[in-house]
Write a structure and sequence with these properties.
There is one protein chain. By secondary structure, the protein is an alpha/beta fold. It folds into two domains: 126 residues, Response regulator (Rossmann fold, 3-Layer(aba) Sandwich); 68 residues, Winged helix-like DNA-binding domain superfamily/Winged helix DNA-binding domain (Arc Repressor Mutant, subunit A).
C-alpha cells in the first residue's frame, strides 16, 4: 500500500533538469519533491536530513559521483531507495551503480507517466529496468557475473519467481500468477538473493536474463 505521499529527492548537476523533473512530478498527487541536490556530496547530506523515500540520482556529477553517492546513501539510509536517472546507457557505470545499491534505472528521455510509476515501484522495492539499459548491460555481463552460483541452486518455485521477476512483474502480479501470497513471494525473493549472492531485484533480473531464465523479449512488462 502506497503512502499518502512518496518523498523524493532530485539529484542532478543541472538546475534546469532538476526543475523540469520537479515540474513533471508536481502533478502527481502521491509524489512530493522534498529537495534538490547539485552533486553527490550534497545528496548524501540532504538524504540524511530529509529522509526521502526515493532519490532520483544522476550518474555523472562533479565532486562526488552518483555511484559513490548511491553507495553511501544505501548504507547510511537503508530505507531510502535510489533510482538512477541518466541520459546515456553506459553499461560500466550502470552496473557499478547497481552494485552500489541502486534499485533501478531509467533514461532521461522516458515519459512522465513511466517516471512516476517507476518511482512508485522503487518505493516498494519493485523497480524495473529500461529495456535499452538492460540490453547494454547484458552485452557485458559475461565476465562480471561468471563467479556467481548457477541457477540450479534454486528450487523449481524459486526459478518460477525469478523468471517472473525478470519480466518486470511486481510482487502482487507474481503472487497472482503463481497462486501464492505476496508474503511468500517476498520470502522466495529473499532466498533467491541469498543463494545467488546478489543484493537487489535488479541484479537478480539481470542474472536471469544472462542465464536464459528469461529473455528481453518478455522482460518489458511496464
Amino acid at each position: 500500500m502506497l503512502p499518502s505521499s512518496i518523498r523524493v529527492l532530485i539529484v542532478d548537476d543541472h538546475t534546469i533538469v532538476r526543475r523540469g523533473i520537479r515540474t513533471l512530478l508536481s502533478i502527481e498527487g502521491d509524489i512530493e519533491v522534498v529537495g534538490e541536490a547539485g552533486h553527490g556530496g550534497e545528496a548524501i547530506s540532504l538524504t540524511a536530513t530529509l529522509q526521502p523515500d526515493v532519490v532520483l540520482m544522476d550518474l555523472v556529477m562533479p565532486r562526488v559521483s552518483g555511484i559513490e553517492a548511491t553507495y553511501q546513501i544505501t548504507r547510511q539510509q537503508p530505507n531510502t531507495r535510489v533510482l538512477i536517472l541518466t541520459s546515456f546507457a553506459a553499461h560500466d557505470k550502470l552496473f557499478l551503480a547497481f552494485k552500489a545499491g541502486a534499485v533501478g534505472c531509467l533514461l532521461k528521455d522516458t515519459t512522465p507517466t513511466i517516471l512516476a510509476e517507476t518511482i512508485r515501484q522503487a518505493y516498494q522495492g519493485e523497480s524495473s529496468l529500461d529495456r535499452t539499459i538492460a540490453t547494454e548491460i547484458l552485452q557485458n555481463l559475461s565476465t562480471t557475473m561468471n563467479r556467481m552460483p548457477p541457477a540450479t541452486t534454486l528450487t523449481r518455485r524459486e526459478m518460477d519467481v525469478l523468471m517472473l521477476l525478470a519480466q518486470g512483474r511486481r510482487n502482487k502480479e507474481i503472487a497472482e500468477v503463481l497462486a501464492i501470497s505476496e508474503r511468500t513471494v517476498r520470502a522466495h525473493i529473499t532466498h533467491i538473493l541469498q543463494k545467488l549472492h546478489l543484493t537487489s531485484r535488479t541484479q537478480a533480473a539481470m542474472y536471469a536474463l544472462r542465464e536464459g531464465v528469461a529473455s528481453l523479449d518478455h522482460s518489458s512488462h511496464n
